[in-house]
Design goal:
mainly alpha
């Protein structure tokens, strides 16, 4: 097959090259201006936050020194004895770690359930009443704006020490975070099935049940699993304020300079989060139909 290429006149070619060069130069100028704006914003934020690089440089060696201090002294010739001494309170820590997981699980379940119910009222394509939609959105913003630890402090003050304040704190924050994500998922659905159910005389609830939920269910479960992983980390520090879990034991070990206990508890928390991350990632990939999941 033969092809014929027509050469443009030199004057027209030069004009096109000039336009291309001008467009590239304008794009580069915008990129430079954007980079400068980000750098200035970062500098202003550092100045406003009183970031002191000299103090950071002076404190960094102490940070590494602390990490070195909490490492256990495991001698190859006495490895079994040293390892047993390192995890001397394994049963007690496992019990507290299980309590942490339960706090995260119950909090995630409650928060995801309420967030799922509220997301339909916060979706612009389903809730046409702007006032009701705005109220639900502000409620979700309030729930996710206040840090979990603040909610936990309030509930500890009202209900006393124990895992219940931790569950409530995680549940409220999860309502705000997942409610927002669920609403965004709902707003991106295909509205044709909704119109179809509506054309048959289906109520608003029936439209959600038969046209919306089947489209969003896999993403809802996926986001919930991801949130559970995040909440396990959050529940680990709830004990700092007396809201149950292994955090109280970790804080006690830090305050009393039980270095090896700190590293043992941190290692157990990290291992737990890693295992949960691997399991939930596998489940999420299966739900979303992603090929090549591990």
């Amino acid at each position: 097959m033969t092809s014929h290429l027509h050469r443009l006149p030199d004057q027209q070619t030069a004009a096109l090259l000039g336009q291309y060069g001008a467009a590239v130069a304008a794009k580069r100028r915008r990129a430079v201006v954007f980079a400068l704006a980000v750098a200035v914003a970062a500098a202003l934020a550092a100045w406003g936050g009183e970031v002191d690089l000299r103090k950071f440089a002076e404190g960094l060696p102490r940070f590494w020194s602390y990490l070195y201090d909490i490492l256990p002294k495991l001698r190859p010739s006495h490895f079994s004895a040293d390892f047993t001494e390192w995890f001397w309170n394994l049963d007690g820590w496992l019990r507290l770690l299980a309590e942490t997981l339960l706090v995260a699980y119950v909090g995630t379940f409650l928060g995801a359930t309420i967030g799922f119910a509220l997301c339909f009222f916060a979706s612009a394509n389903l809730m046409k009443n702007a006032l009701a939609r705005g109220l639900v959105r502000r409620l979700l913003e309030f729930c996710r704006t206040v840090p979990e630890i603040v909610f936990a402090l309030l509930f500890v003050y009202a209900l006393g020490l124990g895992p219940v304040p931790g569950v409530l704190a995680i549940a409220i924050h999860t309502v705000g975070a997942l409610g927002k994500q669920f609403a965004e998922v709902v707003e991106n659905i295909d509205m044709n099935p909704v119109e179809g159910v509506r054309a048959t005389g289906g109520s608003w609830v029936e439209q959600i049940r038969f046209a919306v939920v089947p489209q969003v269910l896999s993403n809802v479960v996926s986001y919930t699993l991801l949130r559970f992983e995040i909440n396990v980390r959050g529940a680990s520090v709830m004990g700092f304020v007396g809201a149950g879990g292994i955090g109280k034991e970790l804080l006690s070990s830090i305050r009393q300079f039980y270095y090896s206990d700190v590293s043992a508890i941190l290692l157990m928390i990290i291992a737990t989060v890693v295992v949960i991350d691997l399991l939930t990632e596998r489940l999420r990939h299966r739900l979303l139909g992603i090929e090549g999941h591990r």
